[in-house]
Amino acid sequence: KQEVTQIPAALSVPEGENLVLNCSFTDSAIYNLQWFRQDPGKGLTSLLLIQSSQREQTSGRLNASLDKSSGRSTLYIAASQPGDSATYLCAVPMYSGGGADGLTFGKGTHLIIQP
Amino acid sequence: EAQVTQNPRYLITVTGKKLTVTCSQNMNHEYMSWYRQDPGLGLRQIYYSMNVEVTDKGDVPEGYKVSRKEKRNFPLILESPSPNQTSLYFCASSIFSGANVLTFGAGSRLTVL
C-alpha cells in the first residue's frame, strides 16, 4: 500500500528565505504527484501537478521536482512571504484493480513565515 | 466560477441523528470523492464515484453512505452519527479519476456529541 511521508512536519523561517519541503512515497509506480496548500479552516488548493514523465513544474515562486526512481519530490519556495504561511500537502494517486481512484496524502508540512 | 460547494460548512449534532452533507460541482466532472481529515491521521478517502450510479469504498467507509444519482451531486450520509465521526470533511472532484487535478470544496466541520 502506498505511503506518503512529508518532512519536516513543521517549519518556521524568517521572511525572504528560500526553503524546501520534502515528500517521499513508497511505491514509485505513480501517474503523477500533486502539491496542495491548505489554509486554516479552508479547503485544499492545488498548487502544482507533476506528471510521471516530468522532472519538475514551476508556478511563480514555486518549483516542484519529482524523482520517481528514488520516490521523492521537493517543493521549493523562493523568497518566502508571510502569505505563504499554510500547510503544504503532497499526494499521489492510489490504485485499485481498475485504475487510479483517489489520492493518498502525506500529513503535511505546517509552514510559518515570520515577518 | 468553477467550484465544489459543500453544505453545511459547520454542524454540531448528537449521536444517532441522521445527517447529510451535500456536495455539488459545476464543472461536469465525472469523478467525485469524499475525504475526512483528522489531526495526526491526515486526509483519508471515505467513498468515491467514477460516474453516475458508480460508487466505491475508500479507506474508511464504515458508518457512511453515498449516492450518485446526478453527475453534479455526491451527498455524504451519516445514518447514525457517532462521536468518532467528528471530523473535517472534504468533497472533491476531477474530470476523471486519478490522473488530473482534484478540486476541493471548502470543507464541512462536523461535531457529533
Structure description:
The complex is a heterodimer of chains A (115) and B (113). Chain A has 115 residues and is mainly β. Chain A has no helices and 11 strands. Chain A starts with a strand and ends with a strand. The relative contact order of chain A is 0.33. The mean pLDDT of chain A is 91. In chain B, strands 2, 4, 5, 6, 9, 10 and 11 form a 7-stranded mixed β-sheet that branches. A 4-stranded antiparallel β-sheet of chain B has the order 1-3-8-7, with no helix packed on it. The model of chain B has no long low-confidence stretch (mean pLDDT 93). At the A-B interface, strand 4, strand 5, strand 9 and strand 10 of A face strand 5 and strand 10 of B.
SSE blueprint and pairings:
The complex is a heterodimer of chains A (115) and B (113).
Chain A: E1 4-7, E2 10-14, E3 19-25, E4 32-38, E5 44-51, E6 56-59, E7 62-67, E8 72-77, E9 86-96, E10 99-105, E11 109-114
Parallel strand pairs in A: 2-11
Antiparallel strand pairs in A: 1-3, 3-8, 4-5, 4-9, 6-7, 7-8, 9-10, 9-11
Chain B: E1 4-7, E2 10-13, E3 19-25, E4 31-38, E5 42-51, E6 54-57, E7 65-66, E8 76-78, E9 87-94, E10 103-104, E11 108-112
Parallel strand pairs in B: 2-11
Antiparallel strand pairs in B: 1-3, 3-8, 4-5, 4-9, 5-6, 7-8, 9-10, 9-11
Features:
heterodimer, A: about 120 residues, mainly beta, 6-stranded mixed sheet, 5-stranded antiparallel sheet, B: about 110 residues, 4-stranded antiparallel sheet
Strand content of chain B: over 45%
Please count the helical segments of chain A: 0
Secondary-structure element order of chain B, N to C: EEEEEEEEEEE
Oligomerization status of the protein chains: heterodimer
Number of strands of chain A: 11
Helix content of chain B: under 10%
Distance between the termini of chain A: 41 Å
Mean pLDDT of chain B: 93
Rg over CA atoms of chain B: 13 Å
- The proportion of residues forming helix of chain A, as a percent range, comes to under 10%
Rg of chain A, Å, rounded:
14 Å
- Beta-strand percentage range of chain A: over 45%
Mean pLDDT of chain A: 91
What structural class do helix, strand and pairing data of chain A support?
mainly beta
Question: For the terminal residues of chain B, how far apart are their CA atoms?
Answer: 36 Å
Query: Could you give a short account of the major beta sheet of chain A?
Result: 6 strands, mixed
